[in-house]
Amino acid sequence: MASVRVRQLVKRYDQNVAVDRLDLEVEDGEFMVFLGPSGCGKTTTLRCIAGLEIPDSGEITIGEERVTDLPPADRDIAFIFQSFSLYPHMTVRENLSFPLRAVRTAQMEIEARVTEVARVLRIERLLDRKPGKLSGGEMQRVAIGRAIVRRPRVFLMDEPLTALDAKLRTEMRAEIKRLQSDLGATTLYVTHDQLEAMSMGDKIAVMYGGLLQQVGTPTAVYDSPTNLFVAGFIGSPSMNLIPCRRKEEALVLDSAQETTPVSLPIHGDAAVRFAAAPLGATLMLGVRPEDIALSREPKPEFLAVEVYVVEPLGSENILSILLGGHLLKARTAPTFPARVGETLFARVDQTRAHLFDTQTTQRVSEAA
Length: 368
Ligand code: ATP
Known about the structure:
By secondary structure, the protein is an alpha+beta fold. It has 9 helices and 20 strands. It has a 6-stranded mixed sheet, with helices on both faces. A 5-stranded antiparallel sheet has the order 13-12-11-14-20. Adenosine-5'-triphosphate binds next to strand 2 and helix 1. The site of adenosine-5'-triphosphate has 12 residues, from strand 2 and helix 1.
């Protein structure tokens, strides 16, 4: 396996910049997920790394080798697409053997590797079937098998689970993750599904508008988003974003719907984290739904809120609450009783909340 390094990668289609000066390092054995909305440049980046697109500028290195100008076949990578692309007239065994035959591997070696891959992917009993007689999940396993049988330096996967139904996706998600870690395979994986990204990646590279927004572990990206785009894109329900201003000792929420502005006194621990946010400037306070504590009784530091909507999801309830005219979402235990229209008391966990500059969109408070 090998590391992958991308330096100042630019890819344009006519006037449209699909990938804009992208810098990225993927360590040997790492599982890197590219995440972002449709059209943000994820696939184009992966295709440039695969050699299927020629970059306008920039450099791509696999291991110690500069591969920017090499054709795909000379990069020693395997590409797994959303469509399974198996040969329909060949059995599973022949499909798995094909990439090895293509490079004239000895018959005994082919048999040994196909047996090993079939064992790892638990598809031994399918070896003599043709793709037409396989389920979607089985076909995807064979497609993955065909990629790993060559033992390439890097796996590139572009939305490989999109065609599967929801239950199978969840199963395959866990399987691919386990397989990747067993093989220690450097993997670059494209998805627009944040659950997939959070649950599978060692690291997530969040892209938007051709620009890399943030790279980090799922926890780091979730807990400390670097800007308003990442804050709003990752997490479901998304992070509450409330316009506010910082005063010396309080955050004053912008008045909404002609209500009196609500003031959140800044707690001792948060004062240091919030210190870099300019006084008086318009900021955005970012609070995850799980970082709003609710109480039925008034308590110190808790503010009165009105329950607007209750969404019971079984394992949790999502409450929409009105605080100073702002509609916020809070996550509660399913056992927490709440009725529309009643008054509750809410406290924002300031040790986990963030402040963003509305002009630059960057986070200006310290990481959580
Ligand atoms: P999706 O999740 O929808 O596949 P993506 O994040 O993978 O999106 P890309 O497919 O990389 O995005 O596309 C990035 C931008 O480049 C988009 O604006 C897209 O329209 C444009 N683009 C991609 N391929 C081509 C092409 N072959 N010709 C012209 N424009 C293209």
